[in-house]
Amino acid sequence: MRIKVKICGITNVEDAELALSLGADELGFVLAPSPRRIEPETARAIVSALKGVGRMAPFRAIGVFVNEDLDAMRDIVSFAGLDAAQIHGDEAPADCAAFDFGWYRALRIGSVYDAVAKVGEPWECPRLLVDAASRAAYGGTGSTIGTWAAIAAGAIARDRGKEYFLAGGISPRNVASFIHSIGPDGLDVSSGVEEAPGKKSREKLEALFRAIGQAKEAIHAAR
Description:
Layout: E1 4-7, H1 13-22, E2 26-30, H2 40-52, E3 60-65, H3 70-80, E4 84-87, H4 93-96, E5 103-109, H5 112-119, E6 127-132, H6 147-159, E7 163-167, H7 175-181, E8 186-189, E9 194-196, E10 199-200, H8 202-222
Parallel strand pairs: 1-2, 1-8, 2-3, 3-4, 4-5, 5-6, 6-7, 7-8
Antiparallel strand pairs: 9-10
Helix pairs in contact: 1-8, 5-6, 7-8
């Protein structure tokens, strides 16, 4: 069973190296209003440090954007050496159709109705990420998405040939239940493995990947 893991809200090289050494497939850099926001120059420095020396396993660098201008987003993706943009704002499918760089859509889901209405739109990207709905912020709040809404979103996404990522309140304590009950293709984790906003916890990261490994072993044994 293959489950990709993205550790988001990376602000420094040390946390990035730790996440990758434990098994992260992707690193997320928040380039939008957030306690975890970093400047494009910082993202570029981190990505260059990790990819330039060839010490780390191959990984994808993802920029998180919220209602960003198209030209500015294009420039940041190129400048920072990002592999894709996670579009986390209010953009409609028609807005995203103009993107000429790698991207995927993040959607805030609060109910099964949200899942049907939002995930079912004609998104022209290979991946959809669903996060818990919040009036206060676009992500990284620690809020957990409802199980039925997440299951519905996953079914619709896969029916449309999309890779399905789950975010929202994922932590070492609950990650196994998300894997068993929802079975996403990937997990996006941020606040659940932090000491403080933008600073990851070694203990929590190790516990997260340990719990993921145990959940995968349990599923394999059951088969």
